[in-house]
Structure formats: structure tokens, C-alpha cells
Write a structure and sequence with these properties.
Two copies of one chain form a homodimer.
Chain A: H1 7-17, H2 24-36, H3 39-55, E1 57-58, E2 65-66, H4 72-75, E3 80-87, H5 90-97, E4 104-108, H6 126-135, E5 140-143, H7 149-161, E6 168-171, H8 187-195
Parallel strand pairs in A: 3-4, 3-5, 5-6
Antiparallel strand pairs in A: 1-2
Amino acid sequence: MDYLYSKYLEQATEALGSLPGIGKRTALRLALHLLDRDLIEVERLANAIVLLKQHVCYCTSCNNISDKETCAICENPLRDHSTICLVENIRDVIAIENTHVYRGVYHVLGGVISPIDGVGPNDLSIELLLQRLQKQQINELIFALPATVEGDTTGFYIFRQIEPFNVKVSILARGIAVGDNLEYTDEISLSRSIQQRLPYSGSAV
Amino acid sequence: MDYLYSKYLEQATEALGSLPGIGKRTALRLALHLLDRDLIEVERLANAIVLLKQHVCYCTSCNNISDKETCAICENPLRDHSTICLVENIRDVIAIENTHVYRGVYHVLGGVISPIDGVGPNDLSIELLLQRLQKQQINELIFALPATVEGDTTGFYIFRQIEPFNVKVSILARGIAVGDNLEYTDEISLSRSIQQRLPYSGSAV
């Protein structure tokens, strides 16, 4: 695969192969697929990714991805603006929105503290969160960060930073997932779900 | 995932999701990754795929992908132009080239006969192959088509078409692959490798 018989094919394969999770072989397959498509479709894809990069901005309130200065969620008067759900990125916003049970607003950190990946607190939108807590009347901040060491570290760091604001802080429940068999559940999740057991209310929670 | 909070993100995700093997979630991940990249890198990717579609053509001799009228292999005087290896697509050319044992030229069919996918003989470069056999002095045609029903059908169809040219036709050996354990080899491959057993020459072939 050193020489692909076409400079253009080689360049397109290289560019596609720079995307995450796309190796050399997949990149070649994608490039050959694009060759079979109409020019207009290929141009549509090319334009879409350039427009994305040129026009998408971040909500000045919650740091979520948006086409305008304020995102659709922060603009929505029907949402509870006194409850903020703290998430790592927009994929988590989408995941929570898909549950249809949360009516508050979000704050998108843009990552979690991870020294290995060179991500420190200053790379995240923590300052923006503190400003928000200062300016607005916030009743509750929900930590919906990943259940990993990095997520826990980030949560703890922010918890220390927001102590002066005296805001109620909660965290997503951890325990066995719906559909899980106990025998396959990891020990930590299982032990947490025992320690934090809930009063039985006649049906599964 | 119905509404991605940004028209541009939605369009880019949709365009990326139209690529083969890339679902909605992966497309969103790729789009968000592109957002994190520099504009110049995103533009380089966009340009690469448009240039690919605009400039790549097919070799007028062997139907391989090329930047010029004749591909690098057909132009190479050191290759044996009297031996043609018949393959399905350019990926197979690359696979065979990587073995470094073949010094002849190729003929790229552009697919195999597959009624289910709506691919008939007229969609392949069979006419071009017949012209080649008519014009040039070809000693041997090697069938290197996929070892599938479609590959075998295509091979048989072409074999019938080229009968008048009286050219020697061979086919890639089929049998157990290097590194295979006999117990895991499928019955057809194993039975072929028994029927077509070779004289032992002191080392594995």
C-alpha cells in the first residue's frame, strides 16, 4: 500500500486516514467509495465539513455547540434555568436529552481533567461555570461526568471551586444498569448499588 | 440524536454518515473531531476528496485508477505485458503488488457479476479486455477473482467470452492458507487442497 498509483487517491486516503478510528485500509475503502459517487455528492460532503468548522460556535452561556451566540437549550424559556447539569461534551448532552427526563440546562466542560492527555483545569470551561454561578440564581448543580478516575477528579476539583457559592450539588446515581445480570456486574458498581440501596416501591426504579 | 443543536453539525454528521461503514454515532464523533481540528486541516481534507473526484481517471488500457491516460504499471517497460492478471478492483491490485512476486500487468474489471446487486457483464470492463486480447499479443490470463460464487461466475463468463482468442488461462491456487490449522479450515478449501496436492520439494510451498 506504499504507492496507490494516483497522487490524488494517495492524498485523499491520507487525509481520510487522519480521522480517528479510520485506518489506512478503511481510508482507502472510503476514498474508492467517494470515487464511485457523483461529484455533487462529494462536494456536498466537502462543503459540509468546511461550513461546520467555519460557522459553528460555542454558546456563551453553557459552552454547548451552537449556530448562534446562545444555544437552543439556554434560549428555551420552558427549561428550568436554575438547575445546571455539568457534562463533559455535547455527546453527553445528546444522551441526556434523549432520556426526556431532564428539563434544566447544561454546562459543557469540553473535556475532563486528564494529566496523561495534557488536559488541565484551565483547558475546561470552569471559569465560565463560576461566572454563571455568580451571576445567576442556581439552585442545583448535577455532576453528570464520566464514571472514571478522570471524571471523578474533575468533579472533585470543581466541587472545591464552587464551595463558596453554597449551591446544592448532586451526582448521577451509580449502580447496576437496567438489563444487567448481577454475575456480570463489576464489583465496584455492585457494592455501590448495595450501599446505596433504595426503598422498594413496588416496581423496579 | 434528532436535533443536534446546530444546523451545520447536523449537515456534516449526515454527510459523513452517508459513507459506508459509518453510522450516525461515528459520524457525530467524526464531526466533533473535525470541529477540534484547525480550519486549514479540515479544508485540506475537503479539497483532497474533491480533487480526487475531479482528477482521477481510469487507465485506458487496464481500467486501473490513474492520474494519467495510462497507469504506472501499464507504462512500465520492465513489466511483462504478455501476462494479464484479471482482478476485481484496485484493492486487489494493491494486494497482489504487495506480494512482490508478480511482474505482469493487470486488468481491473471494476466489480464481479452479481445479479443481487444489479451488476451485469456490461457493467464491467469485459469489452476492454476483449479488445486488449485482440490487439496485443497475450500469452497468459490469470484469473485472480474473489473465491466466491460471484467471482466464479464472472470467471466462467469471461472464460467463455475469450475462448476464440486461444489464450492460456490460469487461476489462483486455492487451498489452506499459510498459518491455518487444518481443524479450522473449511471443508471445501481442505478438499481442494487434497485433490490438488503438490509434489513435496523439501520445504513448504
